[in-house]
Please model this.
Amino acid sequence: MSEKKAFPLRLSPDLYDEVRRWAEADLRSVNAQIEFLLRRAVAHRRAGGAAPTGPDTGAGPARDAGDDA
Model:
């Protein structure tokens, strides 16, 4: 198995709860769910499409208005 890169990720509590519920429904950990979503977005982009957005995908803006970093 290849080594994975670890890095901190800051999410708003609301976004984290949404991802956690989605992960539970898909029988994944939050970490595995985030990796799944990122892989799907990258594959979609490589295929020539824009990253999925909208209420049905769970994707939102790249940054929350209240983020400092």
About this structure: The chain is about 45% helix and 0% strand. Residues 59-69 have pLDDT under 50 and may be disordered.
